[in-house]
Amino acid sequence: MKKNTMASPRGETESEQLAGILRSLVAGTMLMSLVFVIVSLTAFNELILRSVVICAVVSIVSSFVLGLIDEGRVGAAGWILFVLTWAAISIGAYISGGVDAPIMVGYVVVILAASLLFGFLAGALFAFLSIVFGGFLIYAEWTQLLPDSFEYSPAAKLLIYSFFFLVVALFQRMSVNLTRRAFARADESETRYRYFLENISTVTYIEDVTILANMIYVSPQVEKMLGYTQEEFLANPLLWLDIVVPEDREAVKQESIRTSKTGETFTMEYRLFSKDMKLVWVRDEARLIRNAKGDPEYWLGVWADITQAKQAEVEQDRIVESLTRRTVQLQTASEVSRAATSILELGTLLSTVVELIRSHFDYYYVGIFLADENNERAVLRAATGEMGQVLLKSQHSLPIGNSSMIGWCIANNEARIVLDVGEDAVRFKNPLLPLTRSELALPLRARGDVIGAMSIQSTLPSAFSEGDITALQTMADQVGNAIETARLFDDRSRLIKELETKNAELERFSYTVSHDLKSPLVTIRGFVGYLREDARKGDMERFDSDLARVVNATDKMQNLLGDLLQLSRIGRVINPMEDVDFDTIVTETLHLALNPLMMEEIKVEVQEDMPKIRCDRVRVVEVLQNLVTNAVKFMGEQREPVIQIGSYGLDEKTGFPILFVKDNGMGIDPQYHERVFGLFNRLSPEGEGTGIGLAIVKRIVEVHGGRIWLSSEGNNKGSTFFFTLPAAEN
Fold first, then answer.
1. What are the φ/ψ torsions at residue 253 (nearest 5 degrees)?
2. Comparing C-alpha atoms, which of 316, 247, 237, 239 is closest to residue 281?
3. Which of 278, 345, 335, 357 is nearest to 310 (CA)?
4. pLDDT digit string (tens) for 73-114?
5. Which of 239, 269, 504, 657 is 20 to 30 A from 559 (CA-CA)?
6. Strand order through the sheet with 215-218
7. Which residues contact 404 (CB under 8 A, 6 or more apart)?
């Protein structure tokens, strides 16, 4: 609470009042001294000398005192007046017979005057001096130190007493006037103070010093501020606490209790409910008032209505927040635009964009979904936070349609916003994101087509303003175009890589074909001459042998050309893609690759519950058949041959299931792990085949978007061929 001060009402100052009293006292004393002289001259000859002396002394002292008053030395003038008057009375008593002298009554006048003008202590001082001097007079009289006493007639004594009685009456009149004027000034001051309190804009109140702080007075302005009348507050001393907003009440109560115990000034801003339930902000400042003994009397305080100031603060904060948010939007848009133009790798672009938007806007979660090639499902391609990584690893996707906000957004090419997630039936409630309170789905467009959507989620309700939506949609459009650019770049990079690979293969192919086809042709040409010689000699046995060699060479050349033709068709001749259980492909492959006798000699272990994949079924059967056939062919001298087929988690890069074919056969030295997948690369020259089989396997796997690699510790340690294929969409 704030201590209120008010200027003194207009009128005389204390110094001016004292000067006026002294002037009146001097004037009255001089007048009565003059009257005393006149009366003495006319009726009391024995008092003429004394009256003249008194009048002369009074005149001299009065003149000196008035001079001091005119100089502004009012206090000094008063003390000099009383001291000299007391001294004159004391001298008069000494020369007039001691304590019996009538002039001793003058001490009473000095004591009263000093008490009236300078307070109790001044009167007590002169009383003490008078008593002490009276004792001295008694001693002097006893020791005969006093001069001869002067005998006054009764009439003279009456005159002297009358003089001092009139002076006392003068002081009494002055005291009464002074008291009346003090009361008048007090009434005027109280009236002005009350008028001031009841006409200022703030509300003044008084509370008792109990812990509860009961209100015992409140100024009438409270009705204008809060709608409650002064009488309502006084009828319910705790009404002020009842109308404090519940969120602020406990803090106000605790601060009130604390300051009541410590006596510190109470200062606090809080909210009150007016009678019509409007919110009123007040600044409450109260100070503990103590009495003369230092004991607490009451709390005096004021309520200042600061509602407009608070509203201005809120508006200012809103403007600052709006400008800050706009700055963040522009900064984020700039960084997203920079990323969109500088990052061409799609995965890096998407992860950079979602993290930029999440961090700059302080959102809970941001994710980007892209439509699949059939435009049936929206697949999550980038997401923020730990839960986002979990969703990415699980290959999270949503159907395009009306079953989710993302699906609806892509299907309708419109943004969808939910200010409170509990009220939207279309929204997909993700258990991994339980803190979401509001969500925004924005379409990603490229060349007029919707290619996906961006999901933005916040832990706050109504977190998205119109400005946010506009800015975020602009960013989403930039991202959509950047995605298309990145895709084109990826396609271009892939085509360049494929072209480089094919050129390399073509070079190897040209060399290998010229080498491997030349061998049977040389054989055929050589043995044609032998056939002619055999026919001329009629050696039919030799003829049949040479003819068999020619036929064998043509078969070898035919197999080689067939494998090359098959290799060239991979990627160009595509069968329909379908979702197939890998178990089914394994079963089909084993029936093709192994006859019943092999099934008895070789132990085949097939893992249960293998994943469902999306593939060209015919081609994948070729892959598995080639790998199983190689495992049987290169089993070596293994007495207990074992072939294992199964799955091994997910690929970290693509999320595809990892599949494998493992054997305990001859194994492959690590230095040949890459070479075995090349054209016409046979590790054993004595082995059958053209050396194209694993090249075909690799081509089929890569056409599906997967990869294949080999793991083997070396000779007679077995081999494991790992490969990845895309998971089924459903």
1. -65, -45
2. 247
3. 278
4. 888 888 887 887 788 778 777 777 777 777 787 788 788 878
5. 504
6. 215-218, 203-207, 296-305, 279-290, 266-273
7. 398, 426, 427, 428
**Residue 574: C-alpha distances to residues 586, 623, 703 (Å):** 21, 15, 10
Considering all CA atoms of the chain, what is the largest pairwise distance in Å, rounded to the nearest integer?
208
- Distance of alpha carbon 264 from alpha carbon 647, whole angstroms: 76
Query: 376 is written with which tokens?
Result: 């049936």
User: SS3 of 682, please?
Assistant: coil
Helices (H), 44-73: 48-70
What residues pair up with 614 in beta bridges, in sequence order?
A: 579
The pLDDT, as a whole number, for residue 12 is 55
From first CA to last CA, the distance across the chain in angstroms is 71
Q: Which residues of 42-80 are buried (b: 16+ CB within 10 A; e: fewer)?
A: eebeebeebbeebbebbeebbeebbebbeeebbeebbbe
> 216: closest CA among 199, 236, 196, 194?
236
Q: How far apart are alpha carbons 22 and 78 in whole angstroms?
A: 7
Within 10 A of 182 (CB to CB), how many other CB atoms are there? 11
Q: Which pTM was predicted?
A: 0.42
Helices vs. strands in the chain: H and E counts, helices first? 21, 18
Output the six-digit token pair for 111: 């004591």
Q: Which of 8-12, 83-87, 398-402 has maximum average pLDDT?
A: 398-402
Strand blocks (E) in 632-681 = 642-650, 657-663
CB 395, CB 489: distance < 8 Å = no
Bridge-based pairing of strands 603-606 and 642-650 is: parallel
pLDDT at position 7 over 90: no
Question: What span, in angstroms and rounded, lies between the C-alpha atoms of 34 and 56?
Answer: 9
Contact 345, 488 (CB under 8 A): no
In 3D space, the residue among 379, 373, 388, 445 whose CA is nearest the CA of residue 412 turns out to be 445
For the cut 50, the answer to whether the pLDDT of residue 525 exceeds it is yes
CA distance 156 to 572: 156
